[in-house]
Write a structure and sequence with these properties.
7-stranded antiparallel β-sheet; globular; mainly beta
Length: 115
């Protein structure tokens, strides 16, 4: 995405088909960055500043997506918990993202999941 957020490393035949700015809940903080969708994976890339301060990349194959939904606010001031968050359940666990237009995002990601 440029100088503020790095682009994900993609496979030879892999393309980004959708992306949206998001904050990923990581422990007790929300890490700024971007959520990317390719034909095979869902990835999160932190901003360069957040990466320097401990923000981690995240990814999962689309085949490991189990459910998508909304997580109600839990009061976490620095983790994004004051807002309703996107909840992504995978084989490896649950990830939460602060993202605008959650219903549209869920619909987009749901259509990308393999049948």
């Amino acid at each position: 995405m440029g100088w503020w957020i790095g682009s994900p490393a993609l496979g030879a035949s892999e393309n980004v088909v959708w992306r949206k700015l998001a904050n990923r809940t990581q422990g007790s903080r929300a890490v700024g960055g971007c959520l990317y969708l390719t034909e095979t994976r869902l990835l999160f890339m932190p901003t360069h500043l957040d990466a320097i301060t401990g923000g981690k990349r995240w990814e999962t194959p689309l085949a490991q997506l189990r459910s998508l939904g909304q997580q109600s606010p839990d009061g976490g001031v620095f983790s994004g918990g004051l807002r309703t968050r996107l909840r992504i359940d995978t084989d490896a666990g649950t990830e939460l993202f602060v993202i605008n237009k959650i219903d549209e995002v869920i619909a987009k990601l749901d259509t990308a999941r393999p049948s």
